[in-house]
Amino acid sequence: QLNMAKKTEEFLKEFKEGPLQFKPTYKFDLDSEVYDTSEKKRKPAWTDRILWKVKNLCEAASEEGKFPEEENQISVTLNSYVSHMSYGISDHKPVTGTFKLEMKPLVSDPLVTLNPEGEWSAEQDVLIRYSAAPELPSSAWDWIGLFQVTFRHVKDYVTYAWVEDDEIASSRDSKQVYLSASEIPKTGGEFLLCYYSNNLQSIVGISEPFQV
After folding, report:
1. In terms of domains, do 93 and 133 share one?
2. Are 195 and 112 within 8 A, CB to CB?
3. Each residue of 101-114: pLDDT tens digit?
4. What is the mean pLDDT of residues 2-14?
5. Is the pLDDT of residue 202 over 80?
6. Do 27 and 36 meet the contact criterion of CB atoms below 8 Å apart?
7. Mean pLDDT, the chain, whole residue set
8. Which sign does the torsion angle of CA 57, 62, 67, 73 carry?
9. Residue 186's domain spans which residues?
10. Residues 6+ away with beta carbon under 8 Å from 169
């Protein structure tokens, strides 16, 4: 039924599935590996399935005319696709799949270079100088965040500055933004500056580590 539906239903056509190298996973008598012995005697079926589809960011952007179409930035490889016959709490047997996910960077070189200016401390306002590549699709919603070097997620910022609202100087080659002294952590430590692009939904520039 699924293979037939994949030929006729448009939304299913791009989904992939691994080979069915395990026994049908439905319908079993409870707490057993015996197929249905009830009066209905239902035929065994591969009811439990795992399908996947990858839609790359660059594909979505090219559909909107923002970027040229490029090779896939995300690839998925199926490592295993198995059923687990030892489970008996249902008339189905569970199915699991494990995948290898590879992601290529959207850009090979940073679109923004960042540098903290002077010594940073919580005793005075501080300055950030940055320069952006011409191809950066900049936005008024872009921001520069101050992160600890051990950060794991874009939301782990300590504080941030809007690149437009907090700009204090601009030239052909670079721009300056400021951070208020009240936003700088008094405990100090090792930090990074990261430029977040709203259009690309990604960090596109990271400074060298520096001390506060």
Report:
1. no
2. yes
3. 887 766 678 899 99
4. 90
5. yes
6. yes
7. 89
8. positive
9. 112-211
10. 175, 176
